[in-house]
Structure formats: C-alpha cells, structure tokens
Prior knowledge:
Elements: H1 3-17, E1 26-29, H2 34-47, E2 54-58, H3 60-67, E3 78-81, H4 87-95, E4 101-116, E5 123-124, H5 126-133, E6 136-139, E7 142-145, H6 151-154, E8 165-168, H7 173-190, H8 192-198, E9 215-218, H9 222-231, E10 236-240, H10 241-245, E11 251-253, E12 255-256, H11 263-267, E13 274-282, H12 292-299, H13 302-305, H14 310-314, H15 322-331
Parallel strand pairs: 1-2, 1-3, 5-12, 8-9, 8-10
Antiparallel strand pairs: 3-13, 4-10, 4-11, 4-13, 6-7
Helix pairs in contact: 5-7
Amino acid sequence: MSKRILAVSALAILAAGTAQARDNIAIAGSSTVLPYATIVAEAFGENFDFPTPVVEGGGSGAGRKKLCEGVGENTIDIANSSSRIKQSDIDNCASNGVSEIMEVRIGYDGIVFASDVNGPEFAFTPADWYNAIAAKVVVDGKLVDNPNKTWADVNPELPAQDILAFVPGTKHGTREVFDVKVIEAGCEESGALEAFMAASMEESECMKLRTDGASVDIDGDYTETLSRLDANKNAIGVFGLSFYENNTDKLRVATMNGVVPSTESIASGEYPVSRPLYFYVKTAHLGVIPGLQEYIDFFVSDDMAGPDGPLADYGLVSDPELAATQAMVAAGTPMGPLN
C-alpha cells in the first residue's frame, strides 16, 4: 500500500472520530498572501455549504513548517507562501509523513520601495540599493566597508537623505526576491561581484548587509514596516505592491530602473522586482477535510483569480497561465521535483 493511501486512511479514521474537532479548512502562512486568501475564504463561506476557512498569518516559512508537521485534523491543510517552497521544506514534510504536496501559483505581486508621502521622490536602481546597505562596496576600485551615509553619497541624483532602510527579515517571504532581484543584481551592476571574485572571495559576500543601523530587518508584516516609517520620516521601506496600493495616502513609491510599479508593469514584465505567489496543499487531506477541493478550485477560478476578479481589484496580478493551474488543481496533481 502506498504512503499516500496509508496517510489518507489514517486521516480518515482520525477525522471520523473527531469530526467535531475541526470542520473548517485550516490555512496559515504568508502575510502577503493573507489578504487574498481572506477575500477568497469569506466569499467561499458565503457561496458554498461549507464553513468559512480559518486563515492565519505567521510568515511563509512558518506556514510551510506547519504544513509539514504531519497528517491529521490537528495539522493545517494549506500553507500560503510569497516565496517558492524549498527542498528543506519538502524533506521536512517527507520525514513527517507528508509525502505529497500540491503547488498552486495564484498570480504575481511586486516588491516596492516607498517612503513618507510628504517626502522627496526617489528613482532607484538595484546598484543604488546595494551601495546603500551592503556591508562592503567598491570605492576607487577597492572593496571597503560601506562608508555611505546619505542616498546622495550613493548616487548624486538621489536626495541627500540619511540612509535608513527597513527591509524584510531573513524569515520573511519577501526577502528572497529582495535578495535576488535587488541585492544580487545590484552587487553585479555596481562592480562589487567582480571585485569579490578577483579577491578570491565567495559570491555569497554580496548578500552581507550593513550592521551599523542603516539597514534594519523587519520580521513582522508590512504594518510593522509602515509603523517604523511613521516614526522615522526619512526612512525607506520595502512593501508588497498591494499593501502600498492600499496605503497611498501614507506612502510615496519609488521607481526601479525608471519603471513605476503597477499591476500593468508587473504583468508585462517591465517592472524588474516582482515575484509569483503560491499556496501549498497537503494532498492527503483532499477528500477528507470538508470543502478543501472546492476551496482550491474556487480560489483559482476566473471569478476569483482572473484579471477581472476581486483579487485583481486588490492588487494581485493575474497569472497568464491560470488555465493550466486550474486544470492541475482540478486533477489534484501533486508537485514534482523542484527545478
């Protein structure tokens, strides 16, 4: 008998004996995906004969960890994630009997750089951000500890405002796209990567950020970053596009490589700092937890995740390959090996 059949059988027995313990779908994870999942959950509860799913935050990594705790009604069914699952997550799942996971891409979001609405305008490049907050930068052809104090020190075309950046913490789903598309890209653009290689240093040196207070990790959600900006009017914060669009009365957004972040510029691929959003389903719970299949079908339907659906109204950029996702979800296809 396969591991999945054994897992489903065990869950079915457990669910039969504790049906009253949990009849809601249980979801946790990314603060970025949280508002989208909440919209879908509330609409699902209003339109289907199932209870409204319970949706919680906690972060992408924490959600995936919860998903991988095991199989049973005392474990969650879905993990929302603003970064793709890692092999370490898959290995953790497998070690706890979670042998199959369905990967569902719901659309795209952008990472934006915003400051106080009454402050000056910023037009950034990845190199600007690298030279502002990296631990080591190139000055006169040599690698040195970062001496830059203001954004004008980094780039004379930027405002002479003290560098204070609130960036997503290492456990935040947003950090991965920030590292890859801003810090890594900026390291290469600035010439620092070439300097590290010439000095026989590892490429990972690019990822080391300042520890002198100019760059501050925020492990909470975007509301925490916003509160930090409220208290530090000269700071720059990193947000998801949808959060910014719901706080335009408080925030002024910067361009990146001359492109204004918007659903249109992300959908076209013009805006350089965007990322796919996902949720991950424990397939052993399909057919056992009431409404789980119906919920995931509903989430990726044209009515919800399509370009004219309510998620797009909130800021989600609809996936051009949504039809393929819908077919995969309807078939209950688990994800294959990471590529």
